[in-house]
Specification:
With about 350 residues, this protein is α/β, with parallel strands linked by helices. About 35% of the residues lie in helices and about 15% in strands. The longest helix is centred in the first third of the chain and has 23 residues.
Amino acid sequence: MVSENPDFRRPMPFQRRCKAVARKLRELRSIASALISTGHPYMAHIIPMRRCNLACTYCNEFDDISEPVPIAEMERRIDELGRLGTSVITISGGEPLLHPELDRVIARIRRTGAIAGMITNGYLLMPDRIQRLNRAGLDHMQISIDNVLPDEVSKKSLKVLDAKLKMLAQFADFHVNINSVVGGGIAHPTDALTVSQRALALGFSSTIGIIHDGSGQLKPLGEEERSVWDKVRQLTRRSYSRFNHFQVAIANGQPNQWRCRAGARYLYICEFGLVHYCSQQRGYPAIPLAQYGKADLRREFLTQKSCAPNCTISCVHQVSYIDHWRAPQSAQTTPGGARGAGSGADAGLVQIH
């Protein structure tokens, strides 16, 4: 599985290279737009279905019964995000590949002018499915791989998924990021280093996330976990998101002082079409997306969240970093404690490189 030539790199045909350049230009334009104006969301996560084909013990974002959101409703919600001027729309879940009309969802995102991303466990990927994602216009995919061999905590293992990674290396025109994790009950921290090395060998980018403990609070990494975390960050220095400074405090079990822009620059749209701060704070502000407007964006931009110091949701940190230097927050809200062991692992996708 991982004994192949470590110097193998995914070939970059001319057409694929052109698509990568065009994607990079769109990303740069989206960042420039965010720097110029604070009046629109930069990133939104939208849930087409809550059901998942796996049951990782640290995850609180799935069930095994939910039906997919009807495609007409999904398209309407995506159009509403387009109305708000959202730059990046990422499909999450549950497992989004279970949605029977996912290609139409991706195409609708691209029609709004947004960058289209997806977080998936990768189990359902096959060559023809990857080609359909290419045709639909997917820009980014993230797969979190938690261990080398499956265990009682997670089945998202390198042994199971390596064949899927080879398919992606051969067929995917979109950017692929492989995220590994430490903390939160992961039995073998050194697996994260193996996963990252394999991702880079296949020509993908690689990131590492920290899972906090089962009560949803920050917990310092152990000595071995911290060593692995440092090694992966050094290994992936070029491809790792530049806005990851907050993870140093998390690794040390220390709070971060920052201005969370959830509800403004970052939106989480649940399967019921409600706007929430993030996957771990569902229920706030819980306003229907169709009713969400500029006044809501401005209010939340200026609202300090009491959960922010202990937050580990990387996408919210990274998006909020765009505006870390402006508009001190004058209001405050207490949305409540985290809903279990969350991480930056599955909550953040589009790493701008």
